[in-house]
Design a protein that fits this description.
The chain is of the alpha/beta class. Helix content is 39%, strand content 13%. It has 3 domains: 86 residues, Winged helix-like DNA-binding domain superfamily/Winged helix DNA-binding domain (Arc Repressor Mutant, subunit A, Orthogonal Bundle); 220 residues, Aspartate Aminotransferase, domain 2 (3-Layer(aba) Sandwich); 104 residues, Alpha-Beta Complex (Aspartate Aminotransferase, domain 1). The longest helix has 23 residues. In the C-terminal section; belongs to the class-I pyridoxal-phosphate-dependent aminotransferase family. InterPro entries: Aminotransferase_I/II_large, HTH_trans_reg/aminotransferase, PyrdxlP-dep_Trfase, PyrdxlP-dep_Trfase_major, PyrdxlP-dep_Trfase_small, Tscrpt_reg_HTH_GntR, WH-like_DNA-bd_sf, WH_DNA-bd_sf.
Length: 462
Amino acid sequence: MPVNSFEQYPMTWKPDKDQLVSPLYRSIASLLEYDILNGYLPPNTKLPPQRELADYLDINLSTITRAFKVCEVKGLIYAVTGRGTFVTPNARNAIFMAESSEELNYIEMGIVKPLDCTNGLVVETIKSIANKNYLEQLLDYRHPLGMPYHKMAARKWMQRFSMDAPVDNIAITSGGQNALTLILIALFHPGDKIAVDMYTYPNFIELANILNIQLIPIAADELGMMPERLDAACNANQLQGIYLVPSCNNPTAITMNMNRRKDIADIIKKYELILIEDDIYSFLAPEGYLPVSHFVPDRFVYVLSIAKSLSSGMRVAFIAYANVFVEKITYGIFNINIKTSGLNAEVIAELINTGVADRIIREKKEMAKVRNELYNKYFEVNNPSENPFSFFRWLPLSHPCTLKEFEQNALTYGIHVYHSDRFLAKKDESAQFIRISLTSTKDVDELDRGLVLLKRLLLNLK
């Protein structure tokens, strides 16, 4: 302990000394990042002076300076000359920032990355487009909903996954998250209620919070959201919509079968809900599976992002929608998006029309299959409805623990995974799980090492 003890000294942030490992600056940066991203340090919190932290931890000032620099580069904190260092207002967004492998002192198994090793094929397509004589036409404001040629390619890609809609009912957006934002703003109002799975996509939860839209969690069984529970929720609440990820639900990895899709569709029609179908994992679903939207032709908005299937960095998604929503969605695009990049849409259209897109998803499914087989060596998949090609797995925890406790314990073991509380639409005493990304490690060997560490961690929790 230092001569001048800080044990009882009031400080806005006191990292746990027992969590520190070598190299110290990375360990301190990881602890600070964790506490910021999980809300333990609210936006604009003033951090302790670097010298005070150094004294408290009994380490060199330069180590604290180096740790702060790592977090500053990530956009987590900012310094004001003469005033100190503060948590940035939008720091929680940093959870989705790309990490440099040099900065990591753990194996990443939390964030679901989309096997972007196939991006070499995308690069070749970009090079071919760069030499075409119509390139300049892709760089203006025309066709806010998407160029007709691009919308035809979008329709072709949707048909590839058994979804069909007229070209006039299709638009192109700047990625799936942009599409969801657009849909919620255009079709819903503050105070509206939308049914979601008990465990659901956390970005949708945050987006609903921003727009003051209430999410009503619906319990699920091994096949996904239960129709009788949805029916009961519709009776008890005045619901306006429902959000589903049926091909491979994030985070549970469940693929909803056709009977369950039809049963959910019946409830949608009965209560005239607006269906938001997020089919980002359509390429992992069994051949011939019809989307839920197919069964509710007057009540759907269907979102088909290419982030996981083709290329995450191109930021393109296709949306199709029922006639009743054409006017509002068009108005929303004109006033929110103005226009999606025609150049990006051209790249995706070229991938689709040349058949390269089919090659990419075949390669991704092969890689996902290998990684799932490796996971099955260490952990049993008890639910046959979980997608065998899923980019992530949903593992029950036999011993309950808090989100912070579990995730920090995992970091000390050298792995980064997510506790199920991150995915809860409504915090309660539900069963606990961890979501394990199978696609975020650099290769299969690193995934194998990560799964070994996870197995060891879970054994030591017993």
